[in-house]
Amino acid sequence: MASPTREPGRRVRPSARRARHRSDEPADTFASGFRSLALLARNGVQVSARAIDLASGRELFSIDDYIVMPTAGIGTSLLLADVAARLDDPAFESLMILDRETQDQVGDAGLWQHLQAPSLPIADLAALVAASNDHLAMNVLLRQIGLDAVRLRAEHLGLRRTALLDLARDHRGPDDAPHLSVGSMKELTWLFAEFARGEAISPAASQRVVDWLSLNMDLSLVASAFGLDPLAHRSGTHGLTLFNKTGSAPGVRAEAGVLRGPRSGVAYAVATSFTDTDLLTRLAVVDGMRAVGSDLLEYVH
């Protein structure tokens, strides 16, 4: 497994408590999203966020980006990175067919559980994980590759606060990991920027991850502000291209991604943790994340 050439976040400054802006941008470029997240925090929502300019690595804004947050499905990006790296090896069978088994079944996100095909190639399973956070496909891949291998891949990438912790489960008991995955927004922003630049593991592996993540159909959070077609945005429209990964679980909404536009590009990560006891709180969280997306769109377009 390849080792990283530099530490995560080396190109960016330490986290700040207030928004920072480009000198040629209006002073309030990121003010709306920053205020929205701050309002959530004042109302009991734990918030962590970061955005950087993709070309320079310069911090655009951050809120407690060093905190380890539950990130739900975002952690599967580490599984995708490991699969992509293995496909660099000519000895690894890219068309290896994997069977789903009873132990892999989980009645949650994903399409494969609703399909008749009992077996799929490993690359197709990665595409399902990226496109629909397919938990069945994820569990089958993890049974083949191993959770320890994914953890080692994260370590080789230089990630210390970001990890895929467990299989997908219908219910988490006291002996299970409390979350599917955790991460820091600083590390996730760095990782997604590395994917975009072709500098995570190898250019070919990075591009595979980008290609898979560009299939993601969940544009309900930060990316809801970008005006893209959730089912067909891979080629981009109006000068915008996006790849992203979202995470949703009870009391968790998170997203990491890279948005490019005519003026510039950004890598971003936002995570929220809250008491999900009423619909109004959940809607407020979604609205706050969309406000961040509106600011990012203004920056790149």
Automatic annotation (TrEMBL):
Residues 1-27 are annotated as: Disordered. Residues 11-21 have a biased composition (Basic residues). InterPro entries: Beta-lactam/transpept-like (IPR012338), Beta-lactam_cat (IPR045155). It holds the Pfam family Beta-lactamase2. GO terms for biological process: beta-lactam antibiotic catabolic process. One of its GO terms (molecular function) is beta-lactamase activity. Residues 51-271 form the Beta-lactamase class A catalytic domain. It comes from the Bacteria. This is Beta-lactamase class A. It comes from Paramicrobacterium agarici. The lineage of its organism: Bacteria, Bacillati, Actinomycetota, Actinomycetes, Micrococcales.
